[in-house]
Design brief:
about 25% helix; globular; alpha+beta; single chain
Length: about 160
C-alpha cells in the first residue's frame, strides 16, 4: 500500500499560471542515483469540478481527489517488473483549481499502464488522464527540483 509517511517530502505554495498551487516534492529525488533505471515519466491528472470561488474543490471534493490519487499510487506501488523489481518512484504532485497532476518515474511503462488500467475511475472524477513518455533527463520534474533547491537556500 502506498504510504506518504514513507516518502520524505516538501510542500511548497506557489502561483502557477496565476493561480495558487501546492507542489509536493519527493526530497530524495534531488540526489536519486538510480535515474537510469527509471527513465519513463508517468503523469496522472485528476480533475474535479471547481466548487469554491478560487476553483478549489470543496472539502468532500478534495477527499475524493485524494482518494483517487491514492488508489492510483497504490496500484503503481504494487506493480512489479518481470524481475520483481519495484516499478515506480513517486516524484512530485501539483494541486491547483480542482486539478492534481502527479509525476512518477517507472522502469517499465507497460507494467505501469496495466496497473493504471485496473484502477476504478468511476468515483466522481470528471477527467482522468494518464501519460507515459521516455524522459531520461527527468525534465518533467526539473521545475519541482528547482523549487526544492530554492526553498532550501531560503532556510
Amino acid at each position: 500500500m502506498y504510504d506518504t509517511r514513507l516518502v520524505p517530502f516538501t510542500m511548497i505554495e506557489i502561483k502557477r499560471d496565476g493561480l495558487p498551487s501546492t507542489v509536493t516534492i519527493n526530497e530524495a529525488l534531488e540526489n536519486f542515483e538510480d535515474r537510469d533505471a527509471f527513465m519513463w515519466s508517468v503523469l496522472i491528472e485528476l480533475v474535479l469540478p471547481p466548487f469554491d470561488a478560487d476553483g478549489s474543490p470543496s472539502r468532500g471534493g478534495a477527499k475524493r481527489l485524494h482518494a483517487a490519487e491514492t488508489q492510483a499510487l497504490n496500484a503503481l506501488s504494487r506493480a512489479r517488473t518481470a524481475e520483481e523489481a519495484r516499478n515506480a518512484v513517486y516524484a512530485a504532485s501539483v494541486a491547483s483549481t480542482g486539478r492534481r497532476t502527479t509525476y512518477l518515474y517507472v522502469r517499465d511503462p507497460y507494467v505501469a499502464t496495466r496497473a493504471i488500467e485496473e484502477v476504478d475511475k468511476s468515483n466522481d472524477i470528471i477527467e482522468w488522464s494518464y501519460d507515459s513518455k521516455l524522459d531520461r533527463g527527468w525534465t518533467k520534474i526539473a521545475f519541482a527540483i528547482e523549487l526544492l533547491r530554492n526553498a532550501r537556500k531560503k532556510k
